[in-house]
Specification:
Blueprint lengths: L1 E4 L5 H13 L3 E6 L4 E6 L7 H5 L4 E5 L19 E3 L2 E3 L6 E5 L6 H14 L3 E3 L17 H14 L3 E4 L6 H7 L2 E4 L7 H8 L5 E4 L6 H13 L5 E5 L17 H8 L4 E3 L1 H5 L2 H14 L3 E5 L17 H17 L5
Parallel strand pairs: 7-8, 7-14, 8-9, 9-10, 10-11, 11-12, 12-13, 13-14
Antiparallel strand pairs: 1-3, 1-4, 2-3, 5-6
């Protein structure tokens, strides 16, 4: 709910209204301008009557916000949120962040080797799956906790923060202890118990869009995390399921400016899962940078034909390095750095 006060409203009346709303159990954000004061009420406003508020002589206008999300809504938080991932800033006008690494952790030697390679190419963080959600129960499901420990070793050797996907609420403590950026995968985007669980932690969360989720569905999932107390959410577009079968999913680049318009949260793009084809990753990455993405998360493997999962959508390190070289040119053209 948005309440606009007349510019002549005395400060005593502003304070009284603020206290009245707080007593009703809603959080009040005040935006003060030279000629107006605006209250943004966050929470359950169902018990607050528009007519009663308008009866106050100092109230100019009352507007119900149609969007069901409040904490992530740019209307109440006009500044871009910048999420700190172990010292690396994601969002705002900061540099575009590059995350690279294999789909799955295949062992200590493999993840440490690839971590060194992606760092040499210019990556900022290393990604890798320890617990793997797979369509088939017969596919490789990840190394589990040992995979997390292998990623920790890679971080110790390279200094890069690590990104990995948590599959269930009972594993969250493991990720709090070991992982710098906790990923919620597409299949878990509406696992509300898991969203609440990561909402209670002090680590940033990378929230992937569900494969059949609308933009509002996705934002509402971010709202679950934020409502539980964790404001450090990074959105991640990884393609949605449509009738088109040429690519693994349909990459929605329009979502970049939409998320930036509707929310204050940073957004990164996953062209690997979106396309499923290593040949399409570079052009889609460059397009995402041009569209305003705050980062890219890309699968990189030095021997894709022998990868334990998703080798077809992984770049070799030399291709990854070339993508970053071209990405810097595009980033500079749109006033950013990479």
């Amino acid at each position: 709910m948005i309440i606009t006060l007349k510019k002549e409203a005395p400060q005593s009346e502003v304070d009284r209204l603020y206290n009245d709303f707080e007593e009703k159990g809603v959080h009040v954000n005040i935006i003060q301008g030279d000629n107006f004061n605006v209250f943004g009420l966050v929470g359950d406003t169902s018990q607050i009557s528009d007519r009663d508020i308008l009866a106050n002589e100092w109230v100019e206008n009352v507007q119900r916000v149609s969007a069901p999300y409040k904490l992530s809504n740019r209307m109440f938080h006009p500044e871009d949120t910048i999420v700190d991932v172990a010292g690396i800033k994601v969002g705002g006008n900061e540099k575009i962040v590059i995350i690279g690494g294999p789909c799955s952790v295949e062992g200590s030697e493999q993840i440490c080797r690839i971590a060194e390679e992606v760092k040499d190419c210019g990556a900022d963080m290393i990604r890798g799956g320890a617990y793997k959600p797979r369509t088939s129960p017969y596919s490789f499901q990840g190394l589990g906790y040992q995979g997390l420990l292998d990623m920790v070793e890679a971080r110790e050797k390279t200094g890069m923060p690590i990104v990995s996907e948590v599959m269930s609420a009972d594993k969250v403590d493991e990720f709090v202890e070991h992982v710098d950026l906790v990923q919620i995968g597409a299949r878990n985007m509406q696992n509300f118990d898991l969203l609440r669980a990561v909402g209670h932690i002090n680590k940033p969360v990378l929230l992937k869009r569900g494969m059949s989720a609308t933009i509002e569905d996705w934002i509402m999932s971010a709202e679950y995390i934020m409502a539980a107390g964790n404001p450090n959410v990074i959105m991640c577009e990884r393609g949605i399921r449509t009738f088109e079968k040429y690519t693994r999913n349909t990459m929605d680049l329009a979502v970049i400016p939409i998320i930036k318009e509707k929310t204050h949260l940073p957004i990164i793009i996953d062209p690997s899962h979106a396309t499923g084809d290593w040949k399409l990753i570079e052009p889609m990455s460059l397009a995402a940078i041009a569209a305003g993405a705050d980062g890219l998360i890309i699968e990189v493997h030095d021997c894709p034909d022998k990868a334990w999962s998703d080798g077809a959508q992984a770049l070799k390190p030399e291709k990854f390095k070339e993508l970053i070289r071209k990405g810097k040119i595009v980033a500079e053209a749109v006033g950013r750095s990479l």
